[in-house]
Specification:
With 698 residues, the chain is of the alpha+beta class. The chain is 20% helix and 30% strand. A hairpin with a 4-residue loop joins strand 4 and strand 5. Bound molecules: (2R,3S,4R,5S)-2-(hydroxymethyl)piperidine-3,4,5-triol. (2R,3S,4R,5S)-2-(hydroxymethyl)piperidine-3,4,5-triol (DGJ) binds at residues 305, 335-336, 380, 445, 447, 480, 482-483, 499, 502.
């Protein structure tokens, strides 16, 4: 007998089917099927042919491929019993709970292996609004098992794809896209760092041949987990392709009777890569982020890190806060250096008590000053870490995670978050600061990798954050890990913003945030105007470029504002004012990456949720190979609608731009059809400049 289940969103259908009570396979995933499609027939049609040199039947590429069924690729689980014996389960259908109705609901499928006393549960849920499908897997055992690997429900990859795009990166260079051609065998990512990391963002895009940002069929995946993931993209000898995502291998260090994966977020779109990116961004905005005051406009930040580093001086910080407020800042974040004897990065992590040498009367004088200037107050913590040079370590060296002689990272070790004493100690110290002061924001940092991966550590961190959030629901949290090292949906479930990168170099930042837009909306992506001479690259950028790049996301400042010339102050105030006047819709907009005809122009269109307005940011990141600018095609607009568009920063046109194109002098009314099919020719400019074009539907 053939069993089948169908999952639909507005624009996609996913069909699961199996016979003989076996685990089901995804026999169709793509554009919506007719409602009366014969799914049993699809199951039969899905079978591929056999010839010489093959088994007499093709083993199923099921949602959890089973090694015992001669599956010719990576299996969906790797399990041992407590004595180290390999278990090779063969699951059979037990029951299903199907609560999927028109484009929403959940489907739970339960299978069991009576021989080993194991059960496998796959859960699918459909989000009607974002149109993402969430897929999770769970293994339960009668007696404790060691789990080496468990994949979230395994998906097929499209045959018409020539390449896949996944993400790598480094400190100050997050969200780099890697294009890997499909080939026989495995493309594998196994993140051994114990955190999401700059190096291995857990995401994958698979465009079908010819797909672009704006057009074509694309499949995309995100694994919402902060402890390091494993991804397998495999082409089997018979040509079938599978995608597996799960926690990094062997990250479950204890034997237990129950294990589950994080949610695997699945997106399909026939509107190019932007269609999938839009679904991820929307899902974050509407379903992941829970802001304490959702109606409050996102405040402009000031962060003092690159202004003072560890040299905190109350008078100076007050002076800086005064200028920051006059520039337009609405939240002042006191970064590292306020606690213990934290004069540099060699000491004091874990002490979390105000440094009385720097703040003899505590933080109140600074906070009152900040508030008097109309700003809220935020503060930096790095709770999971400890410096061996710290009073806490002296008393409790056993609280540190890993070997005593491990290699340090930024002079620090991790605390073993699983220990109840550690959880309580951290909760009490942080709660004491939050209880004592008017704090509305925490920047939660994580500056080193784990000595070895350990899923319990991540779960324990989640637990601590959840506990703090329950007690202090008014406090927002920013997730930082040396910049964007922890920016996944798992951490975003419990935080509100990511510090995307330690690079405040506008040129690098434009690239990094453009890459992050495959997943992250502007509202959660911090972007600050840095110092004139960038501290992490040595580059010097004009204030216009620095300000406009920050205005493309959740805006803030991070330089010592005392370095600003009056011209720079003028520009910064103007751009900040512009951002504030637009932020209500901008922070809810979808970021659509534009297919730029000129590789030196990195451009994106931020489209309002009601699609009545948009802004295009076109970042010129290099000199062009041709002498005149090429037209830039927009996307996401109505072909039959008209738009009034205008160049917002017309004053930045340089005298070397000598032509007469209309937009240089005035706004214009043009159709969406024209904007998307012909595009707009931007004024000539130096590199490292951003053109800003505002559009309104008329
Ligand atoms: C790393 C972060 O990414 C920086 O922004 C800053 O907070 C430092 N840590 C402080 O030590």
């Amino acid at each position: 007998m053939i069993e089948n289940w169908r999952i639909d969103t507005l624009a996609q259908t996913l069909v699961l089917a199996a016979d003989d009570k076996n685990l089901p396979s995804v026999v169709y995933w793509g554009a919506s099927l007719p409602l009366d499609e014969d799914l049993e027939l699809l199951f039969k049609a899905h079978k591929i042919d056999l010839t010489g040199g093959m088994l007499d039947e093709n083993p199923d590429l099921s949602i959890c491929p089973e090694a015992i069924r001669s599956f010719p690729g990576q299996a969906g689980t790797l399990i041992h019993n407590e004595n180290g014996k390999l278990l090779s389960p063969k699951f059979k259908f037990k029951e299903a709970f199907n609560e999927i109705e028109e484009n929403h609901g959940t489907l739970e499928l339960i299978y069991e292996d009576l021989n080993y006393g194991l059960s496998y549960i796959a859960k699918f849920s459909v989000n009607q609004d974002s149109q993402l499908i969430l897929a999770e897997a769970e293994i339960n055992a009668k007696s404790p098992i060691r789990l080496n690997w468990l994949a979230a429900p395994v998906m097929p990859a499209p045959q018409l794809a020539d390449e896949m795009i996944d993400f790598s990166g480094r400190w100050c260079g997050e969200f780099q896209q890697m294009h890997t051609p499909w080939h026989a065998g495995i493309h594998c990512r196994d993140n051994r760092t114990g955190r999401t990391g700059h190096e291995h963002f857990p995401g994958l895009f698979i465009p079908e041949r010819g797909a672009t940002h704006a057009k074509g069929n694309v499949y995309a995946f995100h694994y919402g987990w902060s402890g390091g993931h494993k991804m397998i993209a495999e082409e089997l000898p018979d040509g079938r392709r599978q995608i597996q995502f799960g926690h990094a291998a062997d990250i479950e260090t204890e034997t237990k009777t129950s294990f589950s994966t994080a949610p695997l977020y699945l997106a399909y779109s026939s509107d190019g890569m932007n269609g999938c990116a839009r679904a991820f961004q929307r899902h974050i905005r509407h379903h992941i982020i829970k802001l304490p005051q959702p109606e409050r406009p996102r405040p402009v930040h000031y962060n003092c890190w690159e202004a003072v580093y560890f040299n905190h001086n109350l008078a100076e910080l007050k002076e800086i806060a005064t200028i920051a407020a006059s520039l337009g800042a609405e939240r002042f974040v006191l970064d590292d250096g306020w606690f213990g004897t934290r004069d540099d990065d060699t000491r004091a992590l874990s002490e979390w008590e105000v440094d009385k040498r720097k703040y003899p009367d505590g933080l109140t004088p600074l906070i009152e000053h900040v508030q008097a200037k109309g700003m809220g107050f935020g503060i930096w913590f790095e709770p999971e870490m400890i410096n061996p040079v710290s009073s806490v370590y002296e008393d409790h060296p056993e609280w540190a995670l890993g070997d005593t002689d491990q290699i340090l990272g930024r002079n620090q070790k991790l605390l073993n978050m699983k220990l109840e004493e550690v959880q309580n100690f951290l909760f009490d110290r942080i709660a004491n600061i939050l209880d004592s002061y008017a704090i509305e924001y925490i920047k939660w940092d994580h500056n080193r990798v784990l000595p070895m991966p350990d899923a319990e550590q991540t779960r324990a961190t989640y637990m601590l954050i959840d506990r703090l959030r329950a007690k202090f629901p008014h406090v927002e949290i920013e997730s930082c890990a040396s910049g964007g090292g922890r920016a996944d949906f798992g951490i975003l479930e419990r935080t509100h913003r990511v510090w995307l990168s330690d690079s405040n170099d506008a040129l690098e930042r434009a690239r990094i945030q453009h890459g992050a837009a495959f997943f992250l909306p502007a509202s959660v992506t911090g972007s600050h105007v840095g110092p004139r001479i960038c501290h992490t690259s040595g580059r010097i950028h004009d204030i216009n470029f620095r300000a406009w790049v920050a205005a493309q996301r959740h805006m803030g400042f991070e330089m010592d504002p005392r370095e600003l010339t009056s011209d720079e102050v003028h520009v910064l105030k103007q751009v900040t004012q512009w951002w504030k006047s637009e932020r209500d819709w901008l922070m809810k907009a979808d970021i659509l990456r534009l297919d730029s005809t000129d590789p030196s122009v990195l451009a994106e269109l931020h489209l309002a949720e009601d699609e009545q307005q948009f802004v295009v940011f076109a970042n010129k990141i290099d000199t062009s190979s041709q002498i005149s600018p090429r037209p830039l095609q927009f996307c996401g607009l109505k072909t039959d609608g008209y738009y009034m568009i205008d160049l917002i920063n017309r004053n930045d046109v340089h005298k070397l731009s000598r032509g007469q194109s209309h937009l240089k002098f005035d706004g214009m009314r043009v159709s969406g059809q024209y904007l998307m099919n012909h595009g707009i020719t931007l004024p000539w400019s130096f590199p490292n400049q951003c053109w800003v074009i505002k559009g309104k539907k008329v």
